[in-house]
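User: Sorry, folds how?
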Amino acid sequence: MYPVLHDENKLLLIDRFITEYVHAGHVPTEYLQLVIPSGGLYFESDNDFDMLSQHMQLGYFSVWLHDIFAKKDIVLCPYSPYHLWALHFMYEDSLRAETITIPEFMLEERQCNLFNLYSEMHRVPMQAGQKVLSFHINIMPANIPKLVQQYPGLYNLANKRLEKISGVINDRPYRINAVCNYLVQHIISCKYVEEMAQYYLHRCCVDLFLNFALQDATPPPSLQLFTPIQTVMLHQVFNYVTTNPQMRHSVAELANMFNMPGAQLAQGFRHHFCIGITPFINMVRMMHIYDSIMKKSFTLGMIAAATGYRNAIDMLKEVDAYYECNVMLMRREQ
């Protein structure tokens, strides 16, 4: 079903036809802290490398994490068994990929790319001692238009012209900005299982695609639009919102708090983080409310009051719509 490789060549499956997970007992103790409770596990190890792979099927999204450590010089051989798109985020180190269409392509640390992959194999050399975390969200190209119906912000991605060969869809690599990193870290640290994980993580994947789509639709500025001091201030706004997720500030209130013109704050935030400040505040609040509801430490009325709602009914209506589920039902079934 899959290619068989030998010696220093190590098969890295981008996706699989059939999932045949291993029990966590087959994973060495030192890797257990990386395990996502809702994920299916694969672990490979020999004298040359260790690789922990984790998989979650979330609606149209097939999410994969590969923690790879090279004990000796190896060649990773990424292989997709069928045509798919992979939104890829690179962590911990950089690698040089060798593809059929591009002799050398750098998978830079803290960069993301959207790949159009056909059923073929590529080569990615790793030196002894290198360790990488490869995180990617796969989706069948035919399912992109279906997502656009729910999330119009993905329209430009759905209308990309596809080549008949594997390659990078975006014109240039994009940085893993603070919002993308915030979402990725919440995915890999998620302790939910079953339905609670499904709805929560699916929405995180949607938001990662929306963020990437906005980066892709925004041309690079010809001049530096913001001073270093303004950039620091924008990151302070980001940190304030994420550390105070219960707050329901308006743009004007935040602009006043950080002594910035409202238009400059809105434009700067969108430029640096590829999401509007208001949608970002809402995203962080929804994640916080979802967490608070599922923990059952407080009544729904207490959570609603703490997050700026008049009552629990209004709060539940918004959270249900955001995550496309019935959070109250899941809370009861815990």
Observations:
- The chain has a mean pLDDT of 93.
- The first helix runs from residue 144 to 150.
